[in-house]
Design brief:
- This protein has one domain.
- The N and C termini lie far apart (29 Å).
- By secondary structure, it is mostly helical.
């Protein structure tokens, strides 16, 4: 399962320039967002029924890869809204993605430049 999630994470934060990304990139980016939304919905239902939960690290991987759909996944079922670290994660991820979109580079390049990694 983690290999599957890591694949989505690395795809969403790909190391290619956004100018060269095709519509396939944005289509898959949207699909990852829809999956993230449903993961939040499923986790809420599992929490209601007291069953096995989706690990929070998985939710944070989705937040890093597509924060808008995760925000919807938090607000619509009202899930994880009392946990401040989820709001901080959403906010920071939105900042990174907004900066990446305006700078026309992938989000991973923004994180690398902030951390001083080449």
């Amino acid at each position: 399962m983690m290999k599957f999630i890591k694949g989505f994470y690395y795809f969403a934060l790909a190391d290619t320039k956004m100018n060269s990304l095709s519509n396939d990139y944005w289509t898959l980016y949207g699909i990852v967002g829809v999956i993230a939304f449903f993961v939040f919905l499923i986790d809420k239902q599992l929490a209601i029924h007291g069953l096995f939960r989706v690990p929070e690290v998985v939710l944070f991987v989705f937040i890093a890869s597509n924060p808008l759909f995760c925000l919807l996944g938090m607000i619509v079922p009202w899930h994880k809204v009392r946990k401040p670290y989820f709001w901080v994660g959403i906010f920071l991820s939105l900042l990174v993605h907004a900066k990446a979109y305006t700078a026309n580079v992938p989000p991973l390049d923004i994180v690398k430049s902030f951390l001083g990694i080449k």
